[in-house]
Amino acid sequence: MKDGFFSGQSNIDIRIRFYVIFGLIGGVIFFLYALSNVVAKDYFYVILEGFLSLFSFYLSYVTYKSRSLKMAISFGIIPIFIISLTNFIVGGYEGTGILWTYVLPLVVIFIAGSKRGIIALTVFLIITLFHFLFLHNLYPNSTIGYSTIEYITFFISFSTVSVMTYLFQNAWDTSERYLSTEKVVERQFKEDLVTKVEELEQTKLDLEEALEKTKETNIKLQKINNVVIGRELKMRELKNKLKSLDSDEQNAEDLV
Fold this sequence. Notes:
The structure is a single chain. The protein folds into two domains: 11-146, no CATH class; 173-256. It is built from seven helices and no strands. The protein is an all-alpha fold. The chain has helices at residues 11-40, 43-66, 69-90, 97-100, 103-112, 114-138, 148-255.
């Protein structure tokens, strides 16, 4: 299909499609969360997660149509950001939600890059700090609380994972730039080499053409030389004959 979902050939089109698919997966996860809350009869989260699911599907459509890489990056990290934040605030299944938040640094920095990713993770930590200090006290029944030592442990470990992921991604980006530079240099070298070879081939053709002209000129000069030499020889022969005749006349006069 020429205009299919995977028909893009450029690197930007491929990245946009990847982020859109990632966002769609987030929308499906929101939908499954909403279904699970229907079973649990927690209708507040059914409405919230149902809205987030529909909003994710809508954003995926808008992002795909706009072909905007920045929008695609933002859309790609929003679902996993909200899911991780929800797991941290609500606690997830039997309090295991906090464990899933450690996936966030890997995904966000991979999708958004080092700089944007670390900004998003900083915002995430600020929101978790707000939850730890204020939000749980305001809504103790619908949110999970963490002790001071639990939150400090989480803050340090999450920050460590984020920084390590940032450093790894930064090193990867640096190596990618280096390899790209090397490829550019190699491509330029090949282009210069091809140009030199073409110039040498053209020079060879010019020399062969000049050699052919030189041969033609030599043939013409040889013909002219033969004609001139032939004339010289004839003139000498005539001079010798004239001398001979003069000598015979002189001898005849002497006899008389």
